Amino acid sequence: MFKRKRLDEISWDEYSSLTQEEQAPFLVQNNGRPYHVLLAQQFDRESLDNLCDLATRIRRIAKSKAGMGFLSSLLDHKRAMLYFHQPSSRTFLSFYSACLILGIRVAELRDPSISSEQKGETMEDSVRVFSSYFDMIIMRNPVQGFVDKCAWMLSNTDRPLPIINAGPGKDQHPTQALLDIYTLQRSFEKCGGLEHKNVLFCGDLKRGRTVRSLSRLLTFYPDITQTFAAPDELQIGQDILDYLDAHGIQYTVTHDFKGAIPEADAVYMTRMQDEWDTKPGESARIRMEDYWFTGDDLKRLKPTGVIMHPLPRRHEIDTACDNDPRAVYWRQMRNGMWIRSALIATVFCRDSEINNYYMLNIK
Ligand code: NCD
Question: Which of 34, 218, 291, 316 has the fewest CB atoms within 10 Å, counting from its CB?
Answer without folding.
Answer: 316
